[in-house]
C-alpha cells in the first residue's frame, strides 16, 4: 500500500488533498428500525484477515506520514446505514456482496427474522457500517 501512496503523492499537486474513506470492521450491528423504535438483534462477524487489512492500511498511512509525504489534517468516524425491506434481502446482500469479509451467524439471523416478523408494519432492517474519513494534505519538496 505504501507504493500506492507514493504514486498518489507523485500525481497530486503540491499542497493537494487526499481523502482516505473506508469502512472499518467493528462487528457492525444489525437492527430492526421502525418509526417507534430501533432494536439491535445481533452483530456481523468480522473475518480475521479483514481486521489485519484495516491495521495494514493504518500502518501504511502512518509510515507515509512519518516519511513526510502527507500531513494529517482531520479524521472522523461516522455511520453509513445499509437498509433492506426484509431479512431475506439483507441475508442475500451479505452472502453475495460481503461474503469475503463478514457473515451473520445463525442465532442472530434467527433473532432478526423473529423480531422483524413481530415488528411494526413499517419496520426495515439496517446494518450500521462504521466508516473512517481522513483528510491528508500532500507534501512535496519544491
What this model shows, in words?
This protein is α+β, with helices and mostly antiparallel strands. It has one domain (2-138). It contains four helices and seven strands; from the N terminus they run H-E-E-E-E-H-E-H-E-H-E. Strand 2 and strand 3 form a beta hairpin. The two termini are 25 Å apart.
The overall strand count is: 7
Rough outline: elongated
Q: How do the SSEs run, as a string of H and E?
A: HEEEEHEHEHE
Structural class: alpha+beta
Q: Give Rg in angstroms.
A: 19 Å
Number of helices: 4
Describe this structure in a few short sentences.
With 142 residues, the chain is an alpha+beta fold.
Main features:
five-stranded antiparallel beta sheet, 4 helices, 142 residues
Note the topology.
Elements: H1 2-11, E1 17-23, E2 29-33, E3 38-43, E4 45-46, H2 48-66, E5 70-84, H3 87-97, E6 102-103, H4 106-117, E7 124-138
Antiparallel strand pairs: 1-7, 2-3, 2-7, 4-6, 5-7
Amino acid at each position: 500500500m505504501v507504493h500506492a501512496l507514493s504514486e498518489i503523492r507523485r500525481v497530486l499537486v503540491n499542497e493537494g488533498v487526499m481523502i482516505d474513506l473506508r469502512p472499518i470492521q467493528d462487528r457492525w450491528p444489525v437492527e430492526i428500525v421502525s418509526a417507534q423504535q430501533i432494536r439491535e438483534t445481533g452483530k456481523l462477524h468480522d473475518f480475521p484477515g479483514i481486521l489485519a487489512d484495516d491495521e495494514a492500511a493504518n500502518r501504511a498511512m502512518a509510515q507515509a506520514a512519518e516519511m513526510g509525504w502527507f500531513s494529517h489534517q482531520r479524521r472522523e468516524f461516522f455511520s453509513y446505514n445499509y437498509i433492506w425491506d426484509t431479512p431475506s434481502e439483507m441475508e442475500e446482500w451479505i452472502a453475495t456482496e460481503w461474503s469475503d469479509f463478514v457473515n451473520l451467524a445463525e442465532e442472530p439471523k434467527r433473532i432478526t427474522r423473529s423480531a422483524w416478523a413481530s415488528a411494526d408494519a413499517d419496520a426495515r432492517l439496517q446494518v450500521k457500517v462504521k466508516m473512517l474519513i481522513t483528510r491528508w494534505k500532500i507534501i512535496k519538496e519544491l
